[in-house]
């Protein structure tokens, strides 16, 4: 082979190398709800979000990051609430990657990062509130909407570094731990009975006051002190007693 023929062949060899070896390393296909983090010899050069077929600098690394919504249902964990009572709690969290570059470069495994931070935030939130409260104090059971908003906010602050967006977070399971569940149930029942009794007594006293006021306004039905006491006693027995009241009739011969 003479030098002239070699000179003619070299350009074709170079073109072959460029077309069939070098250029294909720059081609990639991006599917819907996917992003490609492009890295060239250790340097981040950009992220592709649109679906389709693209070409970029040859010999680049193209890391696929899913942009689909994902949800996790955390395991039931045991933690002490603000009153020190052991409770079981779990949550449902819906999330997606909003910054693929952060998700790939800032944490080692962003899926595991979401799980670990979710567990940590749930424990922290549960320890800040009582399971239930008898007054207007906020609690995990009574203020579910506020608790869900706070859970989402706390998670978002933790996961911003990984480019994760939290779209929903809510408590999916909440209960007293098994070792105190029966005792807390009896406590709740006792509280319910006490509250009901208080409501009945307060209304009964109101009725008695109305009856006494009626007698005092009607001059033809004047009652002395003893008769008032007996009337009040009979009314309270009739209104508060759980059994059918037996009327008491006093016959005065005088």
UniProtKB/TrEMBL annotation:
Transmembrane residues, as ranges?
Answer: 6-29
Keywords on record: Membrane, Transmembrane, Transmembrane helix
Which Pfam families does this one have? Band_7 (PF01145)
User: What sequence ranges are listed for the domain Band?
Assistant: 25-188
Question: What SMART domains does the annotation carry?
Answer: PHB (SM00244)
Q: Membrane as a keyword?
A: yes
Entry protein name: Band 7 domain-containing protein
Q: Which gene is annotated as encoding this protein in its UniProt record?
A: WUni_009190
């Amino acid at each position: 082979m003479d030098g002239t023929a070699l000179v003619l062949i070299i350009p074709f060899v170079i073109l072959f190398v460029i077309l069939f070896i070098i250029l294909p390393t720059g081609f990639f296909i991006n599917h819907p709800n996917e992003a490609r983090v492009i890295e060239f010899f250790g340097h981040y050069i950009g992220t592709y979000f649109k679906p389709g077929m693209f070409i970029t600098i040859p010999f680049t690394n193209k890391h696929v990051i899913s942009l689909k919504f994902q949800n996790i249902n955390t395991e039931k964990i045991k933690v002490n609430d603000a009153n020190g009572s052991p409770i079981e709690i779990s949550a449902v969290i819906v999330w997606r990657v909003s910054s693929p570059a952060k998700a790939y470069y800032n944490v080692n495994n962003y899926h595991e990062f979401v799980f670990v931070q979710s567990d940590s935030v749930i424990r922290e939130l549960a320890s800040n509130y009582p399971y239930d409260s008898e007054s207007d104090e906020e609690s995990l059971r009574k203020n579910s909407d506020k608790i869900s908003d706070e859970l989402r906010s706390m998670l978002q602050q933790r996961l911003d570094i990984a480019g994760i967006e939290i779209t929903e977070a809510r408590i999916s399971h909440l209960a007293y731990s098994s070792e105190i569940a029966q005792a807390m149930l009896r406590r709740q029942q006792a509280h319910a009975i006490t509250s009901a009794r208080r409501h009945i007594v307060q209304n009964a006293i109101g009725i008695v006051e109305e009856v006494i006021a009626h007698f005092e306004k009607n001059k033809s039905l004047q009652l002395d002190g003893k008769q008032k006491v007996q009337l009040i006693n009979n009314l309270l027995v009739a209104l508060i007693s759980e059994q059918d009241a037996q009327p008491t009739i006093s016959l005065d011969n005088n």
